[in-house]
Design brief:
four-stranded parallel beta sheet; alpha/beta; 6 helices; 6 strands
Length: 181
């Protein structure tokens, strides 16, 4: 199978890894996935299509991940204006879709009078960050789960523009905190 992207050159580590898996994974491994989507991906794979699998959702402490008072949490993070707060968590790895979100919000800001702010947590602003027609606040890495719970409660929505993901923990945590995705 030749599925290498045309822009890649040099040693093909993906092909090398795939060939090693075919050679060494002779006995089926019992797969545990957190979602139906990942289970279906395994069933559709060349190597794992006949392997047994079970779905076990990621555990979540609902005593911690719950809605907190929006006015209180906005005050904690100094989000005192009335603009809509759109959150994004994670880095700028291509599969996270941060570039897609920025492009979409740039279009939105030019087509509407609705005021919003993008709140990015889990990364710091880069020195060479381009400017946009909407404000972006970089929160950096939050130090504990309670701070993240409070941030989710302060947000109006969490954007998860992933190109390829399995409903990441950030989405599950935000939903449990009362913030739509």
């Amino acid at each position: 199978i030749d599925n290498r992207p045309q822009h890649e050159s040099g040693f093909d580590i993906n092909r090398w890894t795939w060939q090693r898996k075919i050679k060494h994974w002779k006995s089926p491994i019992h797969l545990i996935t957190p979602s139906s989507w990942l289970s279906k991906c395994a069933k559709n794979s060349f190597i794992m299509n006949n392997w047994p699998s079970v779905i076990i959702p990621n555990p979540l402490n609902v005593n911690l991940w719950k809605p907190y008072d929006k006015d209180l949490t906005r005050g904690m993070f100094n989000f005192l204006n009335s603009s809509i707060l759109i959150g994004f968590g994670g880095g700028d790895a291509p599969h996270k879709g941060f570039d897609l979100l920025l492009d979409a919000l740039e279009l939105l800001s030019k087509k509407t009078d609705v005021k919003f702010k993008l709140v990015v947590y889990g990364q710091y602003e880069k020195i060479d960050s381009p400017s946009y027609s909407f404000p972006i606040q970089y929160m950096g890495a939050l130090q504990d789960d309670l701070s993240l719970c409070m941030l989710y409660s302060a947000l109006d929505i969490l954007a998860v523009p992933s190109r390829n993901d399995n409903l990441p923990n950030t989405a599950v945590e935000a939903i449990s905190s009362g913030t739509p995705i």
